[in-house]
Amino acid sequence: MRIKTLRLCLTSILAIVLFVAVVPQLPATSQSSRSRSASPEARSQVVKMAKGTWDSGWFQAEIYKQLMAELGYQVTEPITQTTEQFYTSAAKGKTDFWVNGWFPLQNFFLQDKAIKEKVEAVGFEVRRGALEGYAIDLETASKLGIKNIADLKDPKIAEVFDRNGNGKADLIGCERGWACAEIIEYQIKAYGLQDTVEQIQGNYFAWMHDYFKNNSYQPILAYIWKPTWVFEKLALGEKTVWLQVPFPALPEQDKVLEKETKIRGLSGCPDDPCQMPFPPNDIRVVANREFLQAHPDIRRLFELVEIPLKDITAQNLKMFAREDSPDDIKRHATEWIRNNRKVVDEWLKAAKIVAALNKEPNLKSEIDKAKIAATETPLPQTLKVVTKIFEPFVYYKNGQYTGFSIDLWKEIAARLEVNYQVVGVNTLAKLLDDVERGAVNIGISGISITSSRSKVLDFSHPYFQSGLQIMVSADTGVKIWETLKSIMLSRGFYYAIGFLIISLLVAAHIIWLTERHNNPDFPKDYLRGIWESFWWAAVTLTTVGYGDKTPKKTLGRLFGLFWMFIGYFIFTYFTATIAAFTLESLRDSISGIEDLQKVRVAIVDKSIAQEYLNEIRINSFAYQTTEELYRALENKEVDAVVYDAPALQHYAAFEGKGKVKLVGSVFNEHSYGIAMPLDSPLRKKINFAILGAIEDGTYEDLRHKWFGD
Length: 709
Known about the structure:
This protein is α/β, with parallel strands linked by helices.
C-alpha cells in the first residue's frame, strides 16, 4: 500500500513537472502554427523595393516606403541598384518597384521588348520639373564669353577646365550606371568635342563637395540636375549659368524628344528660349506589371502621390548640411508625411477604396453611380456651381463656360447623375466666399489647395499640378536713354562723385599747406593755391601726371608718393562703383523671384501668389481680376506680375503675344482642386468620380484636349 502510494505520488510529481515544462510551450507552438498557416498571406504582403544609386532620390523612396507601411504592407529595406540593374531585376520579378524613374531619360529601358512587357511607369511623382543640363561658373563664362558647349572646341578655352593635366576640359559627369552617362558620351561626339572634352565619372558628389569647399580659385564644368542640393548651391544665374548646346542631339531612341529641349523662361540661361541638351523630365514610379495587377491599391497610391520639387530640394539641402544619416532621411520623410497629413490621408483612403472594390466587385457599380447611402444627406436636385474665368481652365464664349476645369466638372456631374447650374463671378475672393458661406455647392476654376484655405473649405483630390511664374513687359530690356537717366539720378552715382571730390579737396589742402611757402607752383593765395593743388591731386590720382606741378619739399614729396599709391585705390573704388551701377542698369531688372524686392509687383487679391509673396515679405499691389492685372502691366503701372503659371503661359502665347514675356522658371508648385463647404456630402462622391475618370482614361483625354502632349 505504501509502495503504491509512493508510486502515485512520484507519478503525480512527474506529471506536474511535465505540465510545468510543456504547457508554457503550448501557446508558442500554437502561435507558431498560426504563423505558419498565415505565412502565405504574410508573404504576399511583403514588397521588394529598390532605390537608385543617387542619394538625391532616397528621400522620396523613404516617403513611399512609409506610406505603403501605412497601407499594411511590409516593405523591405530598399536595395540600391543602378538603372540597368533595376530594370533587369524588375522585369524578372526579383524587384517590385522603385520611385526613381526619370522620363524621358530612362525611355531606353522601357523600349526594350523584354522589359516593356514586364515593367511600366505609373503616376507622376514630379511632373516636368526635373531639369538636367550642363553648367559653368559665371565668372569664367563672362571672362571668356562662353555661352555654348561648342565653345569648348577651342583648346585654349577647354584647357581652363582641365584638372588632370591632359589638355582636355574635365566635364564632371554621370556615375557609371546612370542613364545620363551614355547620353553625355553621345553628345560629346555629336558636338565634335572628343579632342577637347572628356566626361569624368565616379564620385560625383565628392567632386561637388570639393568644388564648394575650394571654388574661390577653380572654374567648374559639370552635368547638374534638379532636384538636388548641388543645383541649389550652384545658384543658377548668380554664381553659375546654363551652358547651351548648338543643336538638339539625343540618341536614336529619343530623337522624337529633341523638340522639347528648347525651354522658355529658364533662369540662369543667357538666351530665351534656352537650347538645353536634355528635355525636362518627369519623375515616376516604375514597377513590375504583375505586382501592380496583384495590388491595385498600391497602383492607386502610385498614381496619386506627388511630392513638390521644392520639398525634395529642401531635404537635399538638409543632407548637404550633414543631416545625411539613414535615420536622418527617415526622419525627414516622417516629418514630410506629418506636415502633409491631410493630403496623405486622402491618398491612402483612395488606395483602400480600390482594395475594397477589388474584394467586393458589386461595390464598384455603386461607387461609379455615386449612390447615396441611407445614412448620408441627400444631394440637392440641382447643384449650384460657381466659377470664374481662368484661361485655359475656364473660358466664357458664346454665352457658355468651357475649358479644362469645366469639361472635367461635366464628366464628374455625369458620373454622379446630378443636374447643375453654373454661375460666374469676377474675382477669386468672391468665389471662395460664396463657397465658404454655403451660397453654392461647388467652386471650380483654377483653385489652389492651401493649408489656410483647407481650414475653411473642403477640397477634392488634386486634379492638376501648377505653380507660380513671373510675367513682365516684352520691351523690358536695355534702353540707352533710360539707362543713362537712371544712372544720373541714382543716389549711388552722386555718393561716388562726392567721395572723389572730398578726397581731392583733402589732398589739395595737404599739398598746399606743405608747399605754399617755397614752391611757386602752389600760390600762397588761398583760392588760387587750392585750385592749383586740386589740379595736381586730380592729375596725379588719374595717373595723367602732366608734370607741370611737382612738390619740392621733402614732406610734400613724401605726401605726393603716398597720394600716388592711395589715389590708385580711391580711383579704382570710384570707377568700380560707377561700373557696377551701370551694369546693374544695363541688364534686365527682373530675371527671377530674387529681383522682385526692388520692383512693383502685381497679384490677384486672395490668390496663392499673394499668400506666397506675403510669406517671403515682398510687397505687392492687389487687383480683383486677371484682366486688371494684365492691363496694369501693359500700362506700366507695375513692373511684374506673379500669378499661376498656366494662366500666364496661355496669356503670353495668345492675347499678350508680343506685349509680355515670362521670366524665370515655375516656383512654389501647388495643386488645383474643387472647392466645397466644410463637411460637404459631395466630397467623397466627387473624389470617387475623379478617380474613376483617371482610371478609365477620360481624364487623360481631357488633359490632352486642352494641353496637348
